[in-house]
Q: What sequence folds into this?
């Protein structure tokens, strides 16, 4: 197995050497011995530096955790103050468009330039984006900042998955993912409450500014702890040539085109207008062109190798990853509208009302990740998880202004438990059919699919919500209110302060419009969840590897790397030649 995987490694050039070179032989022997040491030990090192890296990745993921949830309860206030109107959806979509489009490129950068510096740059980019958002003086500046944030956020989560894959065998990864999930859970649990409290007590700008000290802490921890191996023997230009720049460019352009069409369709422009159809068709054509470019091997090192999708399980897991991520954000971005526009809760209390999603979902994800490590079976977890998730989403359709606290808390807990069960058991299933040499590419591809699904999880229900609002506005007696809520503006007015400002019966009319629009949003989501349940039957249970074979593992401070050993050999050879030179 090790030999087969080595032959697939793009960094392995040993087969090209037809002559014997002492320095090369020493390097090869050392490389082979390092793999044998891993295999013979049957385990991996879990000392102080290992745990420092795990904690560092956890702190880094805390950035993404806060940003994914803290904005949900503060978005209506931000949108209203900056006057974004129907463009509110770009607060989310600019974030996810950049996150999705750049993830495959970051995966290649991790392979070419190493995990350490790529991760540090990614964290710095996210922190910069947070500063831009906090200082935004216009909607355009906020959206630009969110785009920069998204670029860093997608890289943060992907880099963490890649590094854990380097440090831990596939079968045992769930145990250590659970540690990061525990830290991530703190962020997602506190995020909605913090976001709601910030906009209620002070300015919404602190929703973004609070990421600055966290980002600084993450940079310090990772700078001192994240010392892992990578290939240093190539020149900068040789490394640059390994990047699939054309493939990345096609993929980015196609992603932006499709998501632009999804965002403006039915809101700013009719679905049949050229403003929607042209970018949608060009985007779909771009994905097809990207697939052909990668398939025909025009790139020396494809950013998304077609071999990753040569088996049934990888294809099914890809589709279900997309569906799961879409449904997660379906809930995350529309349950706050229910709490504020239908239940008339304040932003801070809405954050409290969303706690069941984190209090149940994150522990559920951690437990399922540990269960996967213990039993090595992902298919039962996927089936049970999607089944419970779909049930919870279906129950959301029954929520209205008279629903009790127990009802919405239990319904959220059911959905969160199901979502948590598949949250971190899909990546190991996607990685299982491919060799260790393809783990970075596989992880980056999977992360791209997941993030791409996040955008659809906001765009699709957004279209459904806005169209349904327009259909229901006839029941609102005040023409001025109808104009405010029409044509995609209902989301920004979905707050208790707006709805509660009207006298009865007008207030009840507005509440009923929001209630019934959300009902349809969740009813449509049931179909997507049901499809995921059916697709699980097509998965194949592939054994998870218990051995770790990687060239990107932790550095051993007591040992020199290949470049240093090679330099020593050259120096020793030079000294010997000088000693052997005849004296005058």
A:
């Amino acid at each position: 197995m090790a030999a087969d995987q080595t032959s697939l490694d793009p960094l392995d050039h040993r087969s090209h050497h037809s002559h014997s070179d002492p320095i090369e032989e020493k390097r090869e022997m050392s490389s082979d011995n390092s793999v044998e040491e891993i295999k013979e030990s049957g385990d991996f090192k879990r000392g102080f530096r290992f745990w420092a890296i795990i904690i560092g990745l956890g702190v880094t993921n805390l950035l993404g955790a806060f940003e994914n949830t803290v904005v949900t309860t503060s978005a209506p206030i931000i949108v209203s103050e900056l006057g974004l109107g129907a463009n509110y959806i770009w607060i989310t979509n600019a974030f996810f468009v950049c996150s999705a489009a750049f993830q495959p490129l970051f995966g290649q950068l991790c392979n070419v330039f190493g995990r350490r510096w790529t991760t540090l740059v990614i964290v710095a980019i996210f922190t910069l984006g947070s500063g831009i958002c906090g200082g935004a003086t216009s909607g355009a500046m906020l959206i630009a900042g969110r785009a920069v944030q998204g670029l860093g956020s997608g890289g943060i989560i992907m880099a963490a998955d890649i590094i854990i894959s380097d440090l831990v065998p596939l079968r045992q990864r769930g145990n250590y993912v659970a540690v990061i999930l525990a830290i991530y859970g703190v962020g997602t649990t506190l995020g909605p409450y913090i976001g709601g409290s910030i906009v209620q007590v002070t300015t919404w700008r602190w929703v973004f500014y609070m990421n600055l000290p966290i980002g600084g802490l993450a940079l310090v921890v990772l700078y001192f702890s994240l010392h892992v191996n990578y290939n240093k023997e190539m020149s900068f230009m040789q490394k640059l040539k390994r990047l699939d720049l054309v493939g990345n460019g096609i993929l980015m352009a196609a992603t932006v085109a499709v998501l632009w069409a999804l965002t403006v369709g039915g809101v700013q422009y009719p679905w049949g207008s050229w403003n929607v159809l042209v970018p949608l068709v060009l985007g779909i054509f771009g994905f097809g062109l990207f697939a052909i470019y990668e398939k025909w091997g025009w790139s020396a090192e494809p950013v998304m190798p077609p071999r990753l999708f040569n088996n049934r399980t990888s294809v099914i897991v890809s589709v279900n990853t997309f569906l799961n991520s879409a449904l997660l954000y379906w809930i995350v971005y529309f349950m706050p509208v229910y709490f504020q526009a239908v239940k008339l809760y304040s932003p801070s209390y809405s954050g409290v009302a969303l706690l069941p999603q984190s209090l149940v979902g994150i522990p559920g994800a951690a437990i399922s990740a540990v269960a996967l490590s213990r039993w090595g079976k992902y298919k039962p977890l996927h089936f049970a998880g999607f089944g419970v998730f779909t049930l919870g989403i279906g129950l959301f359709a029954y929520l209205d202004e008279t629903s009790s606290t127990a009802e919405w808390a239990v319904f959220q807990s059911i959905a969160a438990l199901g979502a948590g069960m598949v949250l971190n058991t899909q990546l190991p299933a996607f990685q299982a059919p491919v060799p260790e040499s393809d783990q970075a590419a596989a992880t980056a591809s999977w992360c791209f699919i997941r993030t791409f699904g996040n955008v659809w999880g906001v765009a699709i229900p957004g279209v459904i919500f806005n169209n349904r609002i327009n259909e229901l506005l006839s029941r609102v007696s005040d023409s001025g209110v109808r104009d405010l809520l029409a044509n995609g503006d209902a989301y920004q007015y979905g707050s208790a302060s707006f709805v509660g400002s009207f006298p009865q019966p007008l207030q009840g009319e507005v509440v009923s419009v929001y209630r019934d629009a959300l009902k349809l949003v969740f009813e449509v989501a049931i179909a997507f969840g049901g499809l995921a349940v059916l697709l699980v039957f097509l998965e194949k249970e592939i054994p998870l590897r218990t051995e770790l074979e990687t060239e990107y593992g932790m550095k051993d401070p007591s040992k020199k790397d290949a470049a240093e050993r090679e330099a020593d050999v050259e120096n020793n050879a030079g000294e010997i030649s000088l000693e052997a030179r005849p004296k005058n």
Summary: Confidence is low (pLDDT under 50) at residues 1-43, 560-564, 574-579. Residues 127 and 213 are 9 Å apart (CA to CA).
